[in-house]
Design brief:
single chain; Aspartate Aminotransferase, domain 2; 2 domains; 41% helix; binds 4'-deoxy-4'-aminopyridoxal-5'-phosphate; pyridoxal phosphate; EC 2.6.1.9
Length: 367
C-alpha cells in the first residue's frame, strides 16, 4: 500500500505526525479547552437568521476584507482591552491557528526562524514547520515560568525572526507578567528586529488584563485572539489579531482571497451581538477552574497556577498511564507530553466532579 513516504513530500515533513488531540466518544470530554456549554437558544436563533440572510448571496464571494466583522471585533477589544482600536488594527481568519499561519507566512518562511518557550502551544512549532520556518525551542523554569535572563539570552543568540509568547500559556496555564513581555520585546528588537506574537487565546479567563495596550508604539508586536474559548465557539473557527495597521496590511500579502466564508462572518457577527451572555459563562468557568485547582490540591496533586480555562496537574511517575486510567473512568483529559503532568479543561460542575472522582480513585489506587 502506498504511504506518505512513497510520495514526493517535502523532506521536513517525512516521518512526522499531524496534530492530533484524540476526539473520543466518552461521557466527559475535558481535553481540548473547549467551552462545555452549548450556545444559548436565542443566539442559535440569531445565527440561523443571519446565516439565512447570508445564504441568499452565496452566489457571490464574501466580503474579502470582512469589514463589518472587523469593526465589531475592534469594538469588543476596545470595550474589554482598555485600549482603543479600530478596524485598521484588526484582522480576522479561520481560527487563531490561521492567524498564526498567516503571520508566519508573512514574517517567517524559508531561511527564517521562530522561537517559543516550551512547553507551550504545540501548533506554533507545527505551523512553523508547515510554513518552512525554522523552530527554536526556548527555555522555561522548572515551575513553567519564563526565566527572563535565559529567554533573552536565547533570543540574543538565535536572533529569531518571530518570537511567540503565549499568555496565559497552554498547556501550563500560567500567565506571563507584562514586564517580562516588554523585556522580551526589547530583547527581540535589539537582536534582529523581529515580530513578537503575544498569543492571548485564553486571556478572558485571566486574573490580569490583556496586553492589547502594548501594541501602541510597538509596530512589531501582535496580539492574537480567538472566539474558540471565551465565546464558546470553537466550531465556528474564528480567530483575530490586533496590531499596528501596517501588520494588517502585511498579512494581506499572504491571505487567500475570500478566506473567511460569508457563513462564518454572519455567524461570528451573531455571536458578537451576544457577547455579554457569552462572557457570563467565562465567569462560571473561572470559578470552576479555581475549584479544580483547590480540590486537586486537596487530593494531593501538584497544580500549576492557572489563568486559563484549564489546569495542569501532576505529578505522575507515568503521566500516560495516569491519562489512560482517568480515561478508563470515562473522563478524557490531555496528555501534552510534559513529563509527569496532565491537563484538564474546566467543564460543567458535574463534569468536573466526575473528573475529580476519577483522580481521587487513581490516587487511592497509587497510595
Ligand atoms: N493558541 C493557543 C494558545 C491555543 O491553545 C489554541 C487552541 N487550543 C489556539 C491558539 C488556536 O485556537 P483556534 O484556532 O481555535 O482559534
Amino acid at each position: 500500500m502506498t504511504g506518505i513516504d512513497d510520495l514526493p513530500v517535502r523532506d521536513e515533513l517525512r516521518g512526522k505526525t499531524p496534530y492530533g488531540a484524540p476526539q473520543l466518544d466518552v461521557p466527559v470530554r475535558l481535553n481540548t479547552n473547549e467551552n462545555p456549554y452549548s450556545l444559548p437558544e436565542p443566539l442559535v436563533e440569531r445565527i440561523a437568521e443571519r446565516v439565512r440572510e447570508a445564504a441568499r448571496d452565496l452566489n457571490r464571494y464574501p466580503d474579502r476584507d470582512a469589514v463589518e466583522l472587523r469593526t465589531e471585533l475592534a469594538k469588543y477589544l476596545t470595550r474589554t482591552g482598555k485600549h482603543q482600536v479600530g478596524i485598521e488594527n484588526v484582522w480576522a481568519a479561520n481560527g487563531s491557528n490561521e492567524i498564526i499561519q498567516q503571520l508566519l507566512q508573512t514574517f517567517g518562511g524559508p531561511g527564517r526562524a521562530a522561537i517559543g518557550f516550551e512547553p507551550s502551544y504545540s501548533m506554533h512549532a507545527l505551523i512553523a514547520r508547515g510554513t518552512g520556518t525554522g523552530w527554536i525551542s526556548g527555555p522555561r523554569n522548572e515551575d513553567f515560568t519564563i526565566d527572563l535572563a535565559a529567554a533573552a539570552k536565547a533570543i540574543a543568540e538565535n536572533r529569531p525572526d518571530v518570537v511567540f509568547i503565549t499568555t496565559p500559556n497552554n498547556p501550563t496555564g500560567n500567565a506571563v507578567p507584562r514586564e517580562t513581555v516588554l523585556a522580551l520585546y526589547e530583547a527581540a528588537q535589539a537582536a534582529k528586529p523581529s515580530m513578537v506574537i503575544v498569543d492571548e487565546a485564553y486571556i478572558e479567563f485571566s486574573h490580569g488584563d490583556s496586553l492589547l495596550p502594548l501594541i501602541e508604539g510597538r509596530p512589531n508586536l501582535v496580539v492574537s485572539r480567538t472566539m474558540s474559548k471565551a465565546f464558546g465557539a470553537a466550531g465556528l473557527r474564528l480567530g483575530y489579531l490586533a496590531a499596528h495597521p501596517a501588520v494588517v496590511d502585511a498579512v494581506q500579502l499572504v491571505r487567500l482571497p475570500y478566506h473567511l466564508s460569508a457563513v462564518a462572518q454572519a455567524t461570528a457577527l451573531a455571536a458578537l451581538e451576544h457577547t455579554d451572555t457569552l462572557l457570563k459563562y467565562v465567569e462560571q468557568l473561572k470559578a470552576e477552574r479555581d475549584r479544580l485547582v483547590a480540590e486537586l490540591r486537596a487530593i494531593g496533586c501538584e497544580v500549576t497556577e492557572s489563568d486559563a480555562n484549564f489546569v495542569q496537574f501532576g505529578r505522575f511517575a507515568d503521566a500516560h498511564t495516569a491519562w489512560q486510567k482517568i480515561l478508563d473512568r470515562g473522563v478524557l483529559v490531555r496528555d501534552n507530553g510534559v513529563p509527569g503532568w496532565l491537563r484538564v479543561s474546566a467543564g460543567t460542575p458535574a463534569e468536573n466532579d466526575a473528573f475529580l472522582d476519577a483522580v481521587r480513585e487513581l490516587k487511592k489506587e497509587q497510595s
